[in-house]
Amino acid sequence: MLPFARVTILGLGLIGSSIARGVLQAMPTVRLTGYDADPAVRATADRLELCHDIADTAGSAVIDADLVILCVPVGAMAAVAAEFAADLPAEAIVSDVGSSKTEVARVLAEALPGATVIPAHPVAGTERSGPEAGFATLFNHRWCIVTPPEGADPAAVERIADFWRRLGAQIEFMAPDHHDRVLAITSHLPHLIAYTIVGTASDLEEVTQSEVIKYSAGGFRDFTRIAASDPTMWRDVFLTNREAVLDMLQRFSEDLSALQRAIRWGKGDELFDLFTRTRAVRRSIVEQGQDDDAADFGRAHD
Ligand SMILES: NC(=O)c1ccc[n+]([C@@H]2O[C@H](COP(=O)([O-])OP(=O)(O)OC[C@H]3O[C@@H](n4cnc5c(N)ncnc54)[C@H](O)[C@@H]3O)[C@@H](O)[C@H]2O)c1
Ligand SMILES: O=C(O)C(=O)C[C@]1(C(=O)O)C=C[C@@H](O)C=C1
After folding, report:
1. Nearest protein Cα to ligand 1, atom 38
2. What is the pLDDT of residues 259-300, one digit of tens each?
3. Which of 79, 80, 90, 207 has minimal CB crowding within 10 Å?
4. Ligand 2 pocket member 161 (CB < 6 A)
5. From the record, what ranges are coiled-coil (predicted)?
6. pTM: predicted TM-score of the whole model, two decimal places
């Protein structure tokens, strides 16, 4: 039996529209309702037939839902929840896909007192945004981290896990604060570094903008993909996972200073040892099948 019969998606961008496409394929009998604050996104979602119904308000979207899933930037979660709180059916489960979890869990619990809220985070995405960027296979073989609040109803947690497994994801359970530390180093800091390096390159006075574009092969090009990620989404991630990100950034800065010293004093062994260790990390990610380029890596380097 399917975990839910009537699913409402609030926010029809990259992640919301990917969930909609995945549900239409994997759970075709589910009745799907969508809502987005942006009328242009609602019109596009309608044209793409992402949902059976596109509602004009968050309240009317949730009125007969048994799952409501918030797919808006983390800084907008509280406002959306407040918009539909009065219309939420008592038996509905509320979830979200936010990239940071402690703050989102707090604001949802505050805005929806008495509701069953089971937050989750599919660790899958791209640098693109909007309803046209989504695709049904986005979550295939990717982790979805479920962060149930203490004392959560195990049956509700299992229904959320079942929903994500049907979209192709593998499930991991974590405490929200642990999630935020893990993602600070694996996702948030890499984005911050990409934003910095692309910003630094574009500010250089002795290298022109056209040279940066012209010679952006390999390493820099990979950074520009990440640095093209949605500004609203990432502003909100850094503001809501401030402490874990600052902590990881502190460690990163210390390690960067050590590298700076190794270069200055010609300590080739130190550089070589670190680069050997980091190459091994990449190899284990590839071996675990967690990278899209795994096959290419194997061909090019083995
Ligand atoms: N992009 C990724 O790689 C990725 C991966 C995993 C999780 N997430 C999380 O998913 C969420 C959505 O990200 P996305 O990449 O789909 O962003 P997106 O910009 O593609 O879509 C967000 C949508 O939310 C809508 N929205 C904003 N405020 C709203 C409001 N108050 N009410 C209703 N709709 C509103 C926007 O109009 C937009 O269409 C974020 O919380 C993000 O942290 C993103
Ligand atoms: O693949 C990308 O482009 C992503 O940035 C996806 C990515 C990540 O950092 O891995 C970004 C944010 C998420 O919350 C989850 C996944």
Report:
1. 13
2. 999 999 999 999 999 999 999 999 998 888 766 654 433 333
3. 90
4. no
5. none
6. 0.94
